[in-house]
Amino acid sequence: MVFQDEIKISTQGICDVYDITDEINKIVAKSKIKEGIAVISVIGSTAGLSTIEAEPNLIKDFKEFWEKLIPQDKNYHHNKTWGDGNGFSHLRSSLLGTSLSFPVSGGEVILGAWQQIIFVDFDNRSRERTAVVKVIGE
């Protein structure tokens, strides 16, 4: 059996972090699939997905990490192409990744006690985002 749904997210941009764990769990429950896999994919090349302990101070550390690793204010070559100044967001997205998969057992996504699924918008402006969730199994 295959089930697909979407999560819509209105973002502010600039490393905006959203805990989407509850939305993923609701979709898995709605799928009625008890054993299988859940695959999540963000649509776009300036956002990403990961897992983290989604507590406020770790989120601050996460944002500071990205700014040190791939700073916003550098003059990226991509910025010359479109003039939109978001070269940094494409690089961050490519490094973090745009899809994740998780085992589903007993009709639930298997995660650690302090592991939440996060959606990150790296772009330099607010956006309407979509994450596609596909649950495959029986």
Task: Write a structural description.
- By secondary structure, this protein is an alpha+beta fold.
- The protein has a single domain, classed as YjbQ-like (Jelly Rolls, Sandwich), CATH 2.60.120.460.
- It is 29% helix and 39% strand.
- The protein contains 4 helices and 8 strands, in the order ββαββαααββββ.
- The strands form 2 sheets. The protein has a 5-stranded antiparallel sheet with strand order 1-8-3-5-6, covered by helices on one side. It has a 3-stranded antiparallel sheet with strand order 2-7-4, sandwiched between helices.
- A hairpin with a 2-residue loop joins β5 and β6 (108-109).
- It is elongated, with a radius of gyration of 16 Å.
- The mean pLDDT is 97.
- It comes from Candidatus Roizmanbacteria bacterium CG_4_9_14_0_8_um_filter_34_12.
- Belongs to the UPF0047 family.
- It holds the Pfam family YjbQ.
Strand order in space, largest sheet: 1-8-3-5-6
Task: Please estimate the helix content.
Answer: 25-40%
Total domains: 1
> What count of helical segments does DSSP give?
4
The H-level CATH homologous superfamily, spelled out, is: YjbQ-like
The main pleated sheet reads as:
5 strands, antiparallel
Please give the CATH architecture: Sandwich
**Oligomerization status of the protein chains:** single chain
The secondary structure category is: alpha+beta
Strand residues, percent: 35-45%
Which descriptor suits the 3D outline? elongated
Number of strands: 8
Instruction: Give the overall average pLDDT.
Output: 97
Q: How widely separated are the two ends?
A: 6 Å
Radius of gyration from CA coordinates: 16 Å
Helix-strand pattern: EEHEEHHHEEEE
CATH classification class: Mainly Beta
CATH topology, by name, is Jelly Rolls
